[in-house]
Design goal:
Radius of gyration: 17 Å
Distance between the termini: 11 Å
CATH architecture: 2-Layer Sandwich
Number of strands: 5
CATH superfamily: Lipoprotein like domain
Largest sheet: 5 strands, mixed
CATH class: Alpha Beta
Length: 135
């Protein structure tokens, strides 16, 4: 199976690589016993992490944001190499998570990263489950 880091068009610098790595872990966890290599691959899994969105959920005094909602969208495509057949394509597979912000930059960035990791894990699980059904 050829599963490269996803193309990253998101606001998260390592978004594509991180989500692809979570997908590999989820596939192994759910019973995949193959190898991820490019040569002799039966299937190609390609993904694009689309631009994430941050929305303010709540505000404090002077319109300072207290909570954000992060939304990440992934486009996924699975191709069977031998037949050149498209097995699955879905654009806009989306998930969201909220996180708190504050005046401390490290606190806010830590929460931001945790929200991204939660979204990545949920997206990887959904993709892995679908792959388990179609492969």
């Amino acid at each position: 199976m050829d599963l490269r880091p996803f193309t990253n068009e998101s606001i998260i610098p390592d978004g594509g690589a991180y989500i692809a790595a979570r997908l590999r872990e989820e596939m192994f966890r759910s019973g995949f016993r193959g190898r991820f290599e490019r040569s002799m691959a039966d299937y190609i899994i390609e993904g694009t992490v689309q631009g994430g969105r941050l929305d303010v959920v709540s505000q404090g005094k002077e319109n300072y944001a207290l909570e954000y909602r992060m939304t990440i969208s992934v486009d996924i495509r699975v191709v069977e190499v031998a037949r050149g057949r498209l097995l699955w394509k879905e654009d806009g597979l989306t998930d969201s998570a909220s996180y708190y912000s504050g005046p401390d930059f490290q606190y806010t960035q830590s929460n931001y990263r945790v929200a991204f990791e939660e979204i990545s894990l949920r997206l990887a699980r959904r993709i892995s489950q679908t792959l388990g059904e179609i492969l």
